[in-house]
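User: I'm preparing a small set of examples for a lab meeting where we compare how different chains pack in three dimensions. I only have the primary sequence for this one, and I'd like the structure in token form so I can line it up with the others. Please keep the answer compact; I'll paste it straight into my notes.
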Amino acid sequence: MSQPEPPVIRRRGSRGPLPTSDVNLRDVAAHAGVSPATASRVFSGNASVSESTRLKVLASAQELGYVMNNLAQAMVGAGHRSLALVTSSLEPSWVSDLATGAQDTAAKNAHPFLLALTHGDAKREQQIFASLIEQRVAAVLMTDSAGAEGPSEEKLATYASALASVGAVLVMCGYQFFPTMPQILTVNCDQVGGVRQAVQHLTSKGHRRIAFLGWNRTTTAGQRFLGYSLGMRDAGMAIDPALVIECTDDAVEAHLKSALLLKSTSPPTAIVCFTDNTARGVYRAARDFAIIVPLQIAIVGFDDSPTATDLTPGLTTVSAPYVDLGARAASVALRLVDENQNPELPTELIIRGSTTSE
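Assistant: Understood. Below is the structure token output for the 358-residue chain.
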């Protein structure tokens, strides 16, 4: 089957932003006795304009009541350009946490913050990028990309190249560094190490039949499955394919699939879940069959979401610093730090009653 054509990002032709009054840049230039190009350089902060000319243009602008809006300033390279977060939705909750961290950092540095939801629609995603590029956004943070199998390197390279044409960068949040595309920055948390530690915790409790619920083709699931695989290897145990269950981040689907797993002829004694939401489905299945957690089945999640402590018993889960992740991503995107441009933040295993009765 032929591969789909890569997205093409085009900037639509524009006569520039409208001024906030009937007076335009040409009026200001004529009043000051300079060319429109010179007036434009004044408003863009161009150092090649003499101080006397700058003062004359600004005085004319004030006299005529000419005020540039924020978008206009960004279009000519003055003022603070916007930082945008592009994501499919604000669920699960970690996306909202990441957005909070990014917005706080943007606000502290006087950058407007934009949030764009794709709802998993690839065409809408392309339109969003085209619009952001036309607005000369400072940078784009991205948590995922439309499509069941996640973003292709070809598509991300296209986005990054289009952004670079206006001096902007693409920062992928929750992704490992792309060796073949160093122009794309990444900010991640140690998902591999977090799940690996969770498996080590389970094996230390004597578990040998450990399932992984939530395998799918997304980059996030891939990192967490790798952590599961390494943890099993650390314990000298082979992975039973029957215990690796494909599932999306959906509690209803996880409920159905874990029910089949728990009632199989060789059920697991522990389940590592893709997310806390997936783990909620396992709790429901265990309750359906009167299976006691953690005596008969141990459960581990990922995210340390607010519902983790609402479950009974409390859910053992990997905690990731998503607010800090968003703040770091914004700092990298806005070039506020000179340190590692592809940082990976640590995660922490939070042990609760779903894996230990002690």
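A couple of notes for your slides: The CA atoms of residues 314 and 354 lie 6 Å apart. The radius of gyration is 26 Å.

User: Perfect, thanks.
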